[in-house]
Write a structure and sequence with these properties.
The protein is an alpha/beta fold and about 280 residues long. About 45% of the residues lie in helices and about 25% in strands. It has eleven helices and ten strands. The strands form two sheets. The chain has a six-stranded mixed β-sheet, sandwiched between helices. It has a four-stranded antiparallel β-sheet with strand order 2-1-4-5. The longest helix is centred in the middle third of the chain and has 23 residues. The protein is globular. The two termini are about 35 Å apart.
Length: about 280
C-alpha cells in the first residue's frame, strides 16, 4: 500500500532521515518506536508530505506520491574528489541540475495530488488540532463537505455514526473547549475517519494526555485495528504496541535499526540499541 525507497530528510545540515526503505501492507498495523529525536515523527509526516522529503521515493497504492534524487546526488558529489574524478563530478552535476528542474515542476503540480492522497491518509496529531471556533459536529463535517462535496445532511449522519462509535454522540453540539483531552483526541480521530481514509497515521496520539485518559484513546485505535484499518502509529506505549501491532519498527539516528514482529522486538531484540532503549523504557 505504501512503499518508501531511500527516503532522506535534511533540516539544513542536520540529517534526520538517512535512506529509509520500508513497505506498509494493506490491513497492517505498524508501530514505530524509538527515543526522542530518532526521526519517528518526521518519517510519519513525510508519508503524506506534511514534511517534504529531501530525496527518495514514496509510492502510495503503486502510484508515485514523491520522487526525487536531489539530496542523494548532492551527497554523492561531496564524496568525490573534484581533481581526481572530474568526469564523475561533471556527470553528477549535470544530473543534479536535471533533478532540481524536475523537483520544481513536481512542486507546481503537487497541490492537486496532495488533496487526493490526503483524503486517503488520515492523520492524528499529538495535540488534537481541532478547530476551537466550531462545534464537535462541525469539526467533523467540514472536510467532507468542503473537499468531498458531500451534502450537509449526509455528512452529519455519517459524523453522528462515528461519534456514536467512539462514545461522543452526546457531545455533538458542544464546543471542543468543553471536552477533556481524551475526548478531544477521540474527536480528532473521528474527524480523520470522516474522510473515509484507507490508512490512518497516528503521531504519538496519547503523549499530551493525562494518564487516566490514555486508555479511552487506545481503545478506539485498537477497535480500528481490529476492523482491518491500515495503521501506522508512532507511540511510546510499549505494551499497546506489542498488543496491536503486526510489525514494530525501531528507529535510531534516522534509520530503521531493527524491525520484526512484536515478539521479536520486545522479547528477543537483536540490535544493541534496541536492547538499550527497551531496557530503559520498560524499566521506568
Amino acid at each position: 500500500m505504501i512503499e518508501v525507497q531511500n527516503l532522506c530528510k535534511n533540516f539544513g545540515e542536520l540529517e534526520v532521515l538517512k535512506g529509509i526503505n520500508q513497505k506498509i501492507y494493506k490491513g497492517e498495523v505498524v508501530s514505530i518506536i524509538g527515543a526522542s529525536g530518532s526521526g519517528k515523527s518526521t518519517f510519519l509526516r513525510c508519508l503524506n508530505l506534511l514534511e517534504m522529503p529531501s530525496s527518495g521515493t514514496i509510492l502510495f497504492e503503486g502510484s508515485p506520491l514523491y520522487d526525487s534524487k536531489t539530496a542523494l546526488l548532492k551527497q554523492q558529489l561531496l564524496q568525490l574528489d573534484p581533481k581526481k574524478q572530474k568526469e564523475d563530478v561533471a556527470a553528477i552535476k549535470k544530473e543534479l541540475v536535471a533533478s532540481k528542474a524536475s523537483d520544481r515542476l513536481y512542486r507546481k503540480s503537487l497541490d492537486k495530488k496532495l488533496n487526493f492522497y490526503r483524503q486517503k491518509m488520515g492523520m492524528v496529531f499529538q495535540h488534537f488540532n481541532v478547530f476551537p471556533n466550531m462545534s464537535v459536529l462541525e469539526n467533523i463535517t467540514l472536510a467532507p463537505i468542503q473537499t468531498k462535496k458531500m451534502d450537509q445532511e449526509t455528512a452529519q449522519t455519517k459524523a453522528k455514526e462515528l461519534l456514536q462509535r467512539v462514545g461522543l454522540l452526546e457531545k455533538a453540539d458542544l464546543s471542543p473547549a468543553k471536552l477533556s483531552g481524551g475526548q478531544k483526541q477521540r474527536l480528532a480521530i473521528v474527524r480523520a475517519l470522516a474522510m473515509m481514509p484507507d490508512v490512518m497515521l497516528f503521531d504519538e496520539p496519547t503523549s499530551a494526555l493525562d494518564p487516566e485518559m490514555v486508555k479511552e484513546v487506545l481503545d478506539v485505535i485498537q477497535s480500528l485495528a481490529q476492523s482491518g484499518m491500515t495503521i501506522v502509529i508512532v507511540t511510546h506505549e510499549m505494551a499497546f504496541a506489542k498488543k496491536i501491532s503486526d510489525r514494530v519498527l525501531f528507529m535510531d539516528g534516522g534509520v530503521i535499526a531493527e524491525e520484526g514482529t512484536p515478539q521479536e522486538i520486545f522479547e528477543n531484540p537483536k540490535n544493541i540499541r534496541t536492547k538499550e532503549f527497551l531496557s530503559k523504557v520498560l524499566a521506568s
